[in-house]
Structures are given as C-alpha cells and as structure tokens.
Amino acid sequence: MVKVALISGSLRKESLSTKIAKSVGGLFPEGYETQFVEIGNLPLYNEDIDTQSNVPAEYTAFRNAIKESDAVLFVTPEYNRSITGALKNALDVGSRPYGQSSWNGKPAAVISQSIGNLSGFGANHHLRQSLVFLNMPTLQQPEAYLANSAQLFDENGKMNEDTTQFLQTFVNTFIDLIGRHQN
Amino acid sequence: MVKVALISGSLRKESLSTKIAKSVGGLFPEGYETQFVEIGNLPLYNEDIDTQSNVPAEYTAFRNAIKESDAVLFVTPEYNRSITGALKNALDVGSRPYGQSSWNGKPAAVISQSIGNLSGFGANHHLRQSLVFLNMPTLQQPEAYLANSAQLFDENGKMNEDTTQFLQTFVNTFIDLIGRHQN
Amino acid sequence: MVKVALISGSLRKESLSTKIAKSVGGLFPEGYETQFVEIGNLPLYNEDIDTQSNVPAEYTAFRNAIKESDAVLFVTPEYNRSITGALKNALDVGSRPYGQSSWNGKPAAVISQSIGNLSGFGANHHLRQSLVFLNMPTLQQPEAYLANSAQLFDENGKMNEDTTQFLQTFVNTFIDLIGRHQN
Amino acid sequence: MVKVALISGSLRKESLSTKIAKSVGGLFPEGYETQFVEIGNLPLYNEDIDTQSNVPAEYTAFRNAIKESDAVLFVTPEYNRSITGALKNALDVGSRPYGQSSWNGKPAAVISQSIGNLSGFGANHHLRQSLVFLNMPTLQQPEAYLANSAQLFDENGKMNEDTTQFLQTFVNTFIDLIGRHQN
After folding, report:
1. CA angle at C78 for the pair C72 and C79, rounded to the nearest 5°
2. For chain A, which chains pass the contact test of at least 3 CB pairs under 8 Å?
3. pTM for the structure as a whole
4. N or C: which end of chain C has fewer CB within 10 A?
5. For C103-133, what is each residue's pLDDT tens digit?
6. Does D181 touch chain A (CB under 8 A)?
7. pLDDT tier at B49 (50, 70, 90 boundaries)?
C-alpha cells in the first residue's frame, strides 16, 4: 500500500484548496491510500521551542504523518503572490531538526488554484523552489493551475467533469513518478 | 517624525536577523523613529477567525503597528529557499481584511542573511514578489545580501565596521526612497 | 519632454506584445514622448565582442536609445515560464559594460500577457527580479497581467474599452512614479 | 551508451561556466558520453523565421543535438539576477515548434556559479522554473551553487579537489536520476 499525504495550504473550513485536495484524493487507484494532514494547529516554527528535550506535540505528530507517507500532494491557494504562511510554516516544521527532515526524498506534486485567472502561479513556483531544497522529486508536466476555482464544484460539492478528467491524468502521471522513485 | 517598522523573519531569541534589524535601527538619523514589531505571537492566518465581529487581538495590534508606520524594513533569514512561515504569516495578517491592507503604499527595504555564502537570496526575492502585490515601493539598489552572518558581530554584539558602513549607505538610500513617496 | 522607451519581448511582426506596447504608447499625455526600441537585431551578448576598441554598432545604438529615455515600459509574453531570450538579451546588452549600465535609475513598468489564463505571470516576475539588480524603480500596483490577449483587439487593431481604461490607469500611476524619481 | 548534453550559459571563450561544464563532463563514468552543445550561433528566436518551409540551419542542428541526448547538464552564470539571454534563447529554440519540443522528458541537472558569494542562485532557480514547463525531471539535491568560481581552477586549468569531489557526487546522483527516467 502506497501512502500519499494530502496537504492544503488554506485553513478555512470551506477552503477550495481543501475541497480540491480531498477530491483529488478520490482519484488514486487501488493500492494507494491518501491521508489529509492538518497544518493549522502547528505553532509558528521557532528553534527555541523545538529542542531535543522539548518538542511540541503537534510538531511530532505532523513529522510522523509525513514520514509515514510515501509521497505528498500539495494544493495551494495564493496569498500575496506566494504560498500561505500556514503552508510555509508546515514546510519549515517538517524540515527540522537539521538532518532529520521528514520530507527528504518523497515525490511531490503541486496543484495551485485561484478564483481568478492567475491560478496561483506565484504560489505554485515558490513552493517548487522550497521542494528543491527539501529534495522532493516533483512532477513537472502536467502542471496544474486551476483558474476560476469557485466554479469547479456543483452545489453538491462534486467537481466538474473536465477538471476531474484533467486531474485524473495528473494523478496517473504522479503515480508514474512515485513508482520511479521507489528504490 | 518618520516612523520605520523593523520586522525580523526569525523568532529565535538569539536570531541573527533580529540582531541585524536592531543594529540597522540605530543607523537612522534624527527625525526617524524605528520600532521593532513582533510577529511571533500572530495566530496562523485563517479567514474564519478574522471576521468583522471577532478579530484576534494580536491581529489588530499588529495591523495598527504597521498602519502607524511610514515605512518598513524587513530582515529575513532563509528557511528552505524562501522566507520563514512566520514572516509570510505576518505579511498575510497585515494584508487583510480585503481592501484594508496595512502595508499599502508604504516604502520597504529588504535585508537577507545567511550563515553561509548564499545570503538568503531566495528569501530576499520571494519577499519582493509579495511586496509587489502589497504595493510597497521597494528599494532596489543597494541590494543587501549578508553572507557569513554569524561573523558580523563581535563578542559584545557590535556589528563590524565594513558591514556597518555598507548598511549606513543602505539606510541613507532607503531614506531617499521614503522621501520620494511621502504624499 | 519626458521620454519613455517602449520595449516588446516578442520579435514576431504580428506580436501581441508589440501591439499592446504601441497601444499603451498612445495613452501617455502631453509632455510625454514614447519611442519603440527594437531588440531583435542585437547579437547575443558576449563580452568577447564587446571590447573598448570594438563595440557592435547595434549595442551602441540600443544603449544610446535607453540612455536618452527617462523611463522604460516593458511588454512581455511568456516563453517557457520566463521572459523571452530576446528580451533577456536586451537587458544584458543594456547593462554592460560594467559600471555603465544604460538602465540605471530609470523608472520601469511591466505588462505581461498571454493568450490563455496565466497572463505571463512567470515572465512578469522574472523580469522584475532583473530590474532589482538594474536599479530601476518599478511600478508595483496596478500589476498588469493581460489574459486572453488575442481577444483584446478588434479587427481594426483597436484595443477594447475595458483594457484601455485599465491601462490608462496603469499609465497614470506610472507617470506618478516617474515624477517621484526625476532628480 | 547514455548521451549527456553539456550546455554552458556563457559565450565567452574563457567562460568559467564552460570550463566547469567541460570538467564535469570528465566525471561521468564508462557507459556515458558527454557532448558540449554550442548555443552562441543561434539566431534570436522568432516564429516568423521558423516556419515549416524555412527553418534556420542552426535551429535544426541544435534541436537534433538535444533530441539525440538522453539528458542535459546546464552550467550557468548569472547575468542581472537571471540566466543569460543566450541560454534563455537556447531554451526557447529547443522548445519549438509547438508540440515538438526537443527537451521533453529528458532528465536535467543545474550548476550555477559566480565569482562572488551568491553563486548564481537567481539564475539557478529561474532556469528551474523553465524546466518545469519543458517537462525535464530535474535533480533536486545536491543543489550545485559554486561560489568564488574564479578560484576553482589552478593555472593548468585543473579544478580543485574539494569541488571535484562534490561534483563527482553531483554527477553520481544525476546518473541515478537518469536511470530512473529511462523508459
């Protein structure tokens, strides 16, 4: 069983990124297990509160959730032309302590979205720059920029057909990448 | 009296970014007042907890501190090839609610630093991308990339002469920019 | 008379970026003179062919055109998630020889465009990163991302009303920035 | 036999990027063949001169050289906080005509260098943003940022021991990546 962590960059209960992450979770085939990992409870990263003798329980739980995953799918909105503070904080928490990054080597994929045209392009590529340092082989094509994201779901919360088909291709290609990186 | 907010991207008590920010604060001439603004107490931004009837007290205090400033100086380390989650969160908190951004129109300057060669280049330019959206006229030259930042201070916490001279020029040029954007 | 250089990132004769640049040129008020500066004839930058005794005539003409300008407006498409090689080459040519950059200190504004949703976001911000180094104070808001750019013009080559109004505001704000940076 | 194209972002005869590229070429083991591919003769990309009936001979030769390669190693200096115009132009030429990109699917690795501290960080990551679009799986760790590059070589043009060892690890990890992406 291959485990894929789903991470949404937005903390709102009705977040579109979260809805998309959960919908995409449903597109993985048998043999794959997806788990939505919360980031909203993580205290802002501060080395002073993250010492050998005293690690916040939320940090430990988050790091374990990532370590137990085989791959990570990020869905991110754009705040101020970058990823959210919450998502960046989660990257930082998972990357420490030095030499024990939870992210190391895990294949990743990025979906960005916005309610307008720009589709979170700035967030998408800022996130990718961090993934280089975190040593996560990242899906290149298909890039996933979702425009007009408020219109992707019908009143029952079902994602429209075109987007679903596109994201199915995206998931299939991500699965291929994951396969290539399983030693 | 022109007020300049000083913001450090790191929360550690012994943070080099914080030390640099406070040292640079001392380089402003008469007629300028600098204020170090804390960002470590800001809850992760979430629109659900930031409603008209219920705004976290820390958000309000932070937004007021920025609004009362005439300009902002950022000093940032690099975490995972970008700014810290804490700094991005502060940008997000100050930018809301929609249409009432505290940052709007205030001149900004950016110093990045690292203990190695790279000097926080990735953090420096990710921050600048957000400052475009936040509509903050930002000092271009001199760029301030501080390498080997653990060696900038002597045992009494005094910044070395060369760096101090460079940052004095930096401050002077920033003051020129601030002057051009007053009313 | 304030002189504004117009630079298009695309070399195609029917380039949308060029059409936009020329249309925007018409939105400057009395007292402003715009000049379209060609970049397609510049040999790829190579220090070996740009020596004190032997400078390509195209380099000299281009550098003079920029030096005689008071400000620069860039209109850029996106090629492979960045600016075009032609535009980057023009930036490089204008920036040399060391210490004699033609760009230095001149206010700049950036318009990016694409025929799809993404509006050249990647090109827009890559260009801005170079403008930091080139010391060009750059218009922050309004950012200009033009989506679906093939539909901006009618059959007579006239730009539609909404875009024209938006770009008039853009030009007016740019003029304000230029004014703040004249001596 | 696995073929690796070596591309240098600089056109100078005595270019440090070119020297590094050629030195790294010598670090590939048996079974690998490296080929230095020139980019300085490519006319600035312009769709008008690249039509079905009339393709510049230099474009065709360059595209064929890339197509015949199994992987690509880029060594880039930084000009104005980005890659050189020459390198961006080569990316553009190789990416066309639409739907026939020569780069598609080929594993890539990036080395950036500068004669100072910053090591071409800005060029390194701008290049990576293009490689996403070009669908080239790119080596994440080890990142290769070479500082003080004028001091890497002795008077006989031999790269120093530490750098050679680091780049041998870099090459070995790249070879692992190439292996993962062969069919």
Report:
1. 125
2. B, C, D
3. 0.98
4. C
5. 999 999 999 999 999 999 999 999 999 999 9
6. yes
7. very high
B92 at A interface, C-beta within 8 A: yes
Strand order in the sheet with A144-146: A32-36, A2-8, A71-76, A108-113, A144-146
Separate counts of helices (H) and strands (E) for chain C: 5, 5
Distance set, CA B172 to CA B141, B153, B177 (Å): 11, 22, 9
Structure tokens at B121: 């280049």
> What is the residue type of C43?
P
Chain A residues whose CB is inside 8 A of the D143 CB are: 132-133
Letter string b/e over residues D95-108, b meaning 16 or more CB atoms within 10 A of that residue's CB: bbeeeebbbbebbb
Residue bearing tokens 């110093």: B111
The three-state secondary structure class of A174 is helix
- On whether the CB atoms of residues D108 and D137 are closer than 8 A, the answer is yes
pLDDT in tens, D126-167: 999 999 999 999 999 999 999 999 999 999 999 999 999 999
pLDDT tens string B1-23: 999 999 999 999 999 999 999 99
Low-confidence ranges of chain C (pLDDT < 50): none
Give backbone dihedrals phi and psi of C166, rounded to 5 degrees, phi first.
-60, -45
What ipTM was estimated for this complex?
0.97
